[in-house]
Design a protein that fits this description.
about 190 residues; binds glutamine; glutaminase activity; 7-stranded mixed β-sheet; 12 strands; pyridoxal phosphate; 6 helices; alpha/beta; Rossmann fold; PdxT/SNO_CS; 3-stranded mixed β-sheet; EC 4.3.3.6
C-alpha cells in the first residue's frame, strides 16, 4: 500500500490526511527527515507560507525534500504549499523549495474576495467542474513551457503540473470531492 506524507509544520494538514484516508492509501504526518524517507509522495498543505518555510528550514526538510524531488518523488503543493514549490515569489525573499518553474503572486485575488468557492473546469480530472475553495489564494503569474496548465480562474492560472510536481492555488482538502487527491495518488503509484 502506498504511503503519502503530509507536511505537518503548520496549516491544513489534517484535512489532507482525511481526504487521503478516503482513498486506498496510508498517510503520515511529516515533521522529520526520517519520516520523509518513509513515504512515496508528499503533500505540502495550505497555511502561512513564510511560517511553513521557516519551520521546514529548521527541521532540515528543505534540503531533504529537494533531494527526494530530484529522485522523482511526486510532490503536491496546495495554496501556501504551491507558493513554497515556486522558484519565484513576487516581492518576497522568503524561504522556499523552489522546485517548479513558476512565479507566484501571494494573496493575489484582493481583500474583498479573501475567500470564495467556484466551480473550476479541470479536464485532467474529469468533465464535472471541481468545487475549488480559495482562501487568500495565490495565483501563477508566470511559468515556462515545462509547466502544464490544469485550471484557470478569471484568466489566472490556478493549477499546474510539471512532471512529478503538482500545484493548486486552492484547497481541495476542504471539499468532499476527492478527484484531485485521487489524481495525485495515481501520480505516486505510477512513480513506483
Ligand atoms: N496567503 C497565504 C500565504 O501566502 C496562503 C493562504 C493559504 O494557504 N490558504 O502563505
Amino acid at each position: 500500500k502506498v504511503k503519502i506524507g503530509v507536511l505537518a509544520m503548520q496549516g491544513a494538514f489534517v484535512d489532507h490526511e482525511k481526504a487521503l484516508q478516503m482513498l486506498d492509501c496510508e498517510t503520515m504526518q511529516i515533521r522529520t527527515v526520517e519520516q520523509l524517507n518513509q513515504v512515496q509522495g508528499l503533500i505540502i498543505p495550505g497555511g502561512e507560507s513564510t511560517t511553513i518555510g521557516k519551520l521546514m528550514d529548521q527541521f532540515g526538510l528543505i534540503d531533504a525534500i529537494q533531494e527526494r524531488s530530484s529522485q522523482g518523488m511526486p510532490i503536491w503543493g496546495t495554496c501556501a504549499g504551491m507558493i513554497l514549490l515556486a522558484k519565484e515569489i513576487e516581492a518576497s525573499d522568503q524561504l522556499r523549495l523552489g522546485l517548479m518553474d513558476i512565479k507566484v503572486r501571494r494573496n493575489a485575488f484582493g481583500r474583498q474576495v479573501d475567500s470564495f468557492e467556484v466551480p473550476l473546469d479541470m479536464k485532467e480530472i474529469g468533465d464535472e467542474p471541481f468545487p475549488a475553495v480559495f482562501i487568500r489564494a495565490p495565483y501563477i503569474s508566470e511559468k515556462n513551457d515545462q509547466v502544464k496548465v490544469l485550471a484557470t480562474h478569471e484568466e489566472k492560472t490556478v493549477a499546474v503540473r510539471q512532471g512529478h510536481l503538482l500545484a493548486a492555488a486552492f484547497h481541495p482538502e476542504l471539499t468532499d470531492d476527492s478527484r484531485m487527491h485521487q489524481y495525485f495518488l495515481d501520480m505516486v503509484q505510477r512513480s513506483l
